[in-house]
Design brief:
The chain is 38% helix and 6% strand. The chain is mainly alpha-helical and 106 residues long. The chain starts with 9 loop residues before the first helix and ends with a helix.
């Protein structure tokens, strides 16, 4: 396994002591990390990473208790075309059609 050489300025990193202002130059990034308001604004817009996955703000996260089971199912082209032609939510309509068929048989 090849190691990619680090592009970090390790002398600069190791010279930093806790409590010191963070060294900043204009080319370092979009905001001065010592500016509290700029830092707050940056993190308000930032994406979060949880469990190795990006969790964007304002987006729905994974369900705590999924109500449906993910499966792979092969259907005839006619069935898929029929349900897709009715617009978004076609998979939900297939599910309700199958549930209705189960109820009729019971």
């Amino acid at each position: 396994m090849k190691k990619t050489p680090s592009k970090s300025d390790w002398k600069r990193v190791l010279a930093f002591k806790k409590g010191d202002p963070i060294p900043y130059e204009r080319g370092d990034g979009p905001y001065d990390p010592n500016d509290v308001e700029a830092t707050r604004a940056f993190f308000e817009k930032a994406d979060l990473i949880r469990g190795g996955k990006v969790v964007r703000r304002g987006k729905r996260g994974p369900q705590k208790a999924p109500t449906k089971k993910l499966v792979s199912l092969r259907l005839s082209p006619e069935v898929v075309e029929h349900f897709k032609s009715t617009g978004p939510g076609w998979q939900t309509r297939i599910d309700s059609t199958l549930r209705e068929a189960i109820r009729k048989r019971a």
